[in-house]
UniProtKB/TrEMBL annotation, chains A, B:
It comes from the Bacteria. Pathway: Amino-acid biosynthesis; L-leucine biosynthesis; L-leucine from 3-methyl-2-oxobutanoate: step 3/4. Binds 1 Mg(2+) or Mn(2+) ion per subunit. This is 3-isopropylmalate dehydrogenase. It comes from Gallintestinimicrobium propionicum. Transmembrane segments: none annotated.
Length: 360, 360
């Protein structure tokens, strides 16, 4: 099979970690008899430096023409990087928001689970982490506050800023369907998170989710307020299977959930639209402080590539081979700095990529 | 001194816990020679049952006429209580939002700290909790998404809901000043939390906070994105002193922070305006499942009364006497069910109130 992949190395550690994922993918192609065709796309700071904007229309066209996009990470140090002197719509993150919208990537899947081998890195007490946990945050990614109209004006000398949070029932329905579909393949539980005691958008959210639930009598639905969810993720993460929520709540809760696992260098994500197309990226950021030092952990990106094999290309066996390679390397005691612990073998980013590719 | 206090027992465990705080306050008055004049106010479900609305104008007038308001908790089980069949603006929580706005209570102070005696209840690993932590969330309480215009419409048969997030520089400045003032009396650190990489309101927030910071060269200011803050609260809560943030982020982060302490039954809060007036309430909710069973922990409400003595009445010695009584009772091993552990003595809500009052 021919896999047409657009790669966005991006900023910070992005290029290093994408290079390792590509090593692993090349090995998969070799072993399973596939052919990979790659196009590289500039985005974020890397694009600003060349084109003056974080994403060109040409880059979007290249992404659209591919089957899937594999991304590293975007952005720099907001306090020191010159990119953050630019007007907001020209900064690195604007490229990320733009590509999500342009490719209609409304469904962001962020798995958060405890790696048995890395249980020691979990910030929670053993009493809580013992139960293990394995959830998936289904975040709506192209609506709500992050894509609403916004403006800053000055009235009688007083500055005033307005952002708007809009959801239509169609936007809610399509992401809810994704959540219920995924829950069916997992533990059959959806927790829909909102602030229905205050927001109109949350009340609409809740009622549309309940409509969708009727088509999934085999999936158990419950509702939780966002403030309570922020507590429950710390108190008892094992209670969750699929968390379904809107863009901003999903941004906050998925980061909290990934930190709760203690394995943020290991967590992948997929951003999907209504076709097989997807953009795959690690859950973590661009870590400009360690960029270019061969210190980054490429595993989240490698696992994002595995998600790509599974969701876009339906290559389940190949995806499993990648996930198995990760398990093996961890079981053999290899660790990058962020997940290092006593008795393990410390390796750099590139070496970790080699080890993973060798185990395919 | 004469203390004119309006009491809002509210719903669920509210009446029980407020009764204990009143016991303690009566003892303080007796010992220190003050006089307390109380008026009771119905709010939330309790008001709906009598007046059909969660807060009457008369109730607001009574609150305004008092020096301070002591509140229990508001609301019931959203799945089963008939209050939640009412239109949104008639539900219990609408009363809470209305009183905050009517009394201009724009500054919500939520301390979150680890009680040494209750360190065992902290959900974090000893490695992290060992350092101890003691932060205060300064949440803007009368602006932003929770008070913006909202509406739900149907266009071409498709429902659409809109909420708006508005901040003026004046609203930001006055809460920032409160945060810097408080930080000065604490560890001198303000972490301002926003989503300035996406929202206009956050960018205005950041620039106004920076302007205010110029008047406080002795206070250290840093900015943090809300998604990162949700992670840092779990990873390293000891890094924080004062967290300054807008209404919705504050709602989510303050609940997360209080759960991280493991002592949510112990955490008080104050909602202040520009005068000495304040509304004081526990950080936790109305726990309808244990209401009326003498099982609730009244300590958060008792400590909220201590905040009232300190902030509204400038009665520092009296406030300390209350806080000291809490420390003593804990040191003597008395616990309500929520904080019970081996070797301690289990007591009910009312007994805990008696024990605290006796130690004043
Ligand atoms: C960079 C930023 C705009 C982005 C977001 O909040 O969507 C990021 O935090 C993420 O979660 O992918
Ligand atoms: C009841 C609700 C409206 C309220 C809020 O979110 O402000 C509560 O969660 C709080 O934090 O005081």
């Amino acid at each position: 099979m021919k896999l047409e992949i657009a790669c966005i190395p991006g900023d910070g550690i992005g290029p290093e970690i994408v290079a390792q994922a590509n090593k692993v993918l090349d090995q998969v192609a070799k072993k399973f008899g596939h052919e990979i065709e790659r196009k590289e796309i500039l985005m974020g700071g890397a694009s600003i430096d060349v084109h003056g904007v974080p994403l060109t229309d040409e880059a979007i066209a290249t992404a659209k023409a591919a089957d899937a996009v594999l991304m590293g990470s975007i952005g720099g140090d907001t306090n020191t990087s010159p990119w953050y002197k630019l007007p907001p719509e020209k900064r690195p993150e604007a490229g990320l928001l733009k590509i999500r919208k342009a490719l209609n990537l409304f469904a962001n899947l962020r798995p958060a689970y405890l790696y048995p081998e890395l249980a020691g890195a979990c910030p929670l007490k053993e009493e809580i982490s013992r139960a293990g946990f394995d959830m998936l945050i289904m975040r709506e990614l192209t609506g709500g506050l992050y894509f609403g109209e916004r403006h800053t004006t000055t009235e009688n000398g007083v500055r005033k800023a307005v952002d708007t949070l809009t959801y239509t029932e169609e936007e809610i329905r399509r992401i809810a369907i994704k959540a219920f579909d995924v829950a069916r393949k997992r533990k059959g539980k959806v927790t829909s998170v909102d602030k229905a005691n205050v927001l109109d958008s949350s009340r609409l959210w809740r009622s549309v989710v309940e409509e969708v639930a009727k088509d999934y009598p085999d999936v158990e639905l419950s509702h939780m307020l966002v403030d309570n969810c922020a507590m429950q993720l710390v108190k008892d993460p094992a209670q969750f299977d699929v968390i379904l929520t809107e863009n901003m709540f999903g941004d906050i809760l998925s980061d909290e959930a990934s930190m709760v696992t203690g394995s943020i260098g290991m967590l992948s994500s997929a951003s999907l639209n209504d076709t097989k197309f997807g953009l795959y990226e690690p859950s973590h950021g661009s870590a400009p402080d360690i960029a270019g030092k061969d210190l980054a952990n490429p595993i989240a990106t490698v696992l994002s590539a595995a998600m790509m094999l599974r969701y876009t290309f339906d290559l389940d066996k190949e995806a499993e081979a990648v996930e198995e390679a990760v398990r093996k390397v961890l079981a053999e005691g290899y660790r990058t700095g962020d997940i290092m612990s006593e008795g393990c073998t410390l390796v750099g980013c590139s070496k970790m990529g080699d080890l993973l590719a060798e185990r395919i």
